[in-house]
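Friendly challenge for the regulars: who can give me the structure tokens for this chain first? No prize, just bragging rights.
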Amino acid sequence: MKTIIIYLALSLSSILFQEIYSQEKNSSEERNLEYFEKEKEKIVTSEKGKLKLIVEQINSQLDNSLIDSSQAEKRKKEAAEKHAKNIENRIAILKNEMEFRERNDESQYIAIGEHGKAVNFNLNRKKYDKRTVSDIVIAAGFNNALEEGQSLNDSDFKLAGSRFFEIGWAWKTRVFERSNWLRLKYGVSFQFNGLKPVDNQIFEQDGNETYLTEFNYDLKKSKFRMDNLVVPVHFEFGPSTKNEYEDRIRYSTVGKLKIGLGGYAGFNIGERQKLKYEVDGEKIKEKLKNDYNTNDFVYGLSAYLGWGGATLYGKYDLNPIFKDPNRELHNFSLGLRFDVD
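First reply, four minutes later:
Bragging rights claimed.
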């Protein structure tokens, strides 16, 4: 019974396919015939118009006694034969070109126009619409970290010296088929969050505890950096321009207001601390790598707002930087984001 059902289903599919194919083929043949008749009429009209001008010139010469009647008739006959042959040749070229294109499954025909010049003519102009586009995302700006209830004035990190940088690849897909006011933007990004402690401090790890402590020497530089690999996802709102071409449709948001709301999730892939200081006149640079009890899984909220390629960008880590029982510091960033097509 199962075999019979499969056989019947395949047979029915075959019949339906043949019917659809037959209808499409008939429709295509009708379009081709209609096109052929129109082009044929254009050829005949063109050659008749040229012949008419030549006959008028001959009659003018005859009226002004520049030629006699026998010469006039001879020239008219030659002109008529010439343009009749032109019509025959041009129609034959058109027919051969159509047969060639149809045989090679091409919808764009090349008609032979005035003076034998080729003219492109697309019978089946199919507009296609690219719903998903991609671009490079680059963002940079200020970075910091606070506990709940703590203000920026009381932050343990320098406001101007702490920075972030982000680079990634993003795809943007139009949510609705015939409207571009809502887009889904998603991708993968590397985030580099830097913190510069104040008051000559560095991070120190002692077992499962990580804390800030004053360094023994005068620091020229103290920077703590966390590197994350995340997957950002945003719903992007805003107007766009619809551009229609002969063979495609495109939506453009260049110069338009864009609002993106969403978040990100991923993993902490490394942390390090850079120190620069002097001991007895000797300059020392240290790069300290450790896990510093940071959380391995990172996630947060992010948003952007602006016009064109540059937008104001902010992100906030919902996860604390360090695991319990350490201080519950949350990293946040504010800067500019560039979506480069």
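Residues 1-17 have pLDDT under 50 and may be disordered. The chain has two domains: 2-122, 128-340. Your move, everyone else.
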